[in-house]
Amino acid sequence: MLDRIKASLPSLAPAEQRVGKLVLQDPRAFANLPVTQLADRAHVSKPTVVRFCRSVGYDGLSDFKLKLAGSVSEGVPFIHRSVDADDKTTEVMVKVIDNTVAAFLKYRNDASASALDQAVQALAQTHSTGKRIEFYGLGNSGIVAQDAQHKFFRLGMNTIAYSDGHMQVMSASMLGQGDCVVVISNSGRTRDLMDACDIAKKRGATTIVITASGSPLATSGQIHLTADHPESFDRYSPMVSRLMHLLIIDILATTVALRIGETLQPALREMKNNLRNKRYT
C-alpha cells in the first residue's frame, strides 16, 4: 500500500502530495489521528485529506485508514516468490501458501468497498426481480464460473455458468434489462469474454467483471472488481489468481445472502435435510 502511495505522488496535486508524504513519514500515526490533526500536520484543508484518499484509489478517509492500519500491522510480506523447477516439496508448499496468504491480505487492504457494494446491489436486485444471472469464464476462470453458479443457485437465483465462447455469445444475445452477467478473467484480454461482455451490455444487462486492473475487460464492464496479483501468466498453472477469484465470489455470495435475509433460511434448511439421505451414517 505504501509503495502504491509513493508511486502515485508525482501525479497528485501539490497539496495532496503533502498528505501523501505525511502518510509515508509515519503511517501508523496517520491511521490513528483525526482528520483535523492530519490536515494541520500536512498544512492542507480537511477536504484535501479526503481528496488524497480518493485520488490514490480508496473510497474515503475511513476506508483509507482502515486499509492502512491493516497494511502496516501485517507480519506477512506482500512478496510473490516464483516456484522453481529445483524446489523441494517443502519449498513449493511454503511458496504457494505464502503467495496465497500475501495476495489475500493485499486484496483485503486494497479492495474497493464501493465496487463490491455496487456488485452486491446489482446481484441482489436481480434476485428480487427473478431475472437471470450468468457467469462467464474460460479455462481456470471457467471453473470459477461453475463454482459461482453453484453458490448462487442455492440462494434461489436463476443462474447458469458457461465456459464455452460460442455459448457465452449466444446466451448474452438473449439477455435483457434486469439481467446480470459476471465475467471472470485472469488476464482480462480474452477476446471471447470481451465479445460476450459487450453483447450483454448492449442488450441492457448489468455487467460485472472480475479481472486485472488496466486490462481491456476492466474498462468494458460496468462494475469492475479488481483482482490484481504479481503472478506470471507463463509459468506453470495459475494458482493465486484462481484462489483470489474464488475469494471474491465467496464475498459476493455471502453478502448477497445477507441482503436476502431470513426468507432464505427455510429453503436452505430443506435443502440440507434432503441431502442427508445422500450420506452414509
Describe, in short, the structure shown.
The chain is α/β, with parallel strands linked by helices and 281 residues long. The protein has 14 helices and 5 strands. Helix content is 59%, strand content 9%.
- The tally of strands reads 5
Q: Whole-number average pLDDT?
A: 88
Residue stretches low in confidence (pLDDT < 50, at least 5 long) are none
State the separation between the terminal residues, measured CA to CA: 50 Å
What features would you highlight for this structure?
281 residues; alpha/beta; Arc Repressor Mutant, subunit A; Rossmann fold; five-stranded parallel beta sheet; 14 helices; 5 strands; 9% strand; globular
Question: Layout of helices and strands, plus pairs?
Answer:
Blueprint: H1 2-8, H2 14-25, H3 27-32, H4 35-42, H5 46-55, H6 61-73, H7 89-110, H8 113-129, E1 132-136, H9 140-153, E2 158-162, H10 165-172, E3 180-184, H11 191-202, E4 206-211, H12 216-220, E5 223-226, H13 240-260, H14 265-275
Parallel strand pairs: 1-2, 1-3, 3-4, 4-5
Helix pairs in contact: 2-4, 2-5, 6-7, 7-13, 8-13, 9-13, 10-11
Report on the structure:
The structure is a single chain. The chain has two domains: 2-73, Winged helix-like DNA-binding domain superfamily/Winged helix DNA-binding domain (Arc Repressor Mutant, subunit A), CATH 1.10.10.10; 113-268, Rossmann fold, CATH 3.40.50. The longest helix is centred in the middle third of the chain and has 22 residues, at 89-110. The model has no long low-confidence stretch (mean pLDDT 88). It has helices spanning 2-8, 14-25, 27-32, 35-42, 46-55, 61-73, 89-110, 113-129, 140-153, 165-172, 191-202, 216-220, 240-260, 265-275, and strands at 132-136, 158-162, 180-184, 206-211, 223-226. It is an alpha/beta fold and 281 residues long. The protein has a five-stranded parallel sheet, sandwiched between helices.
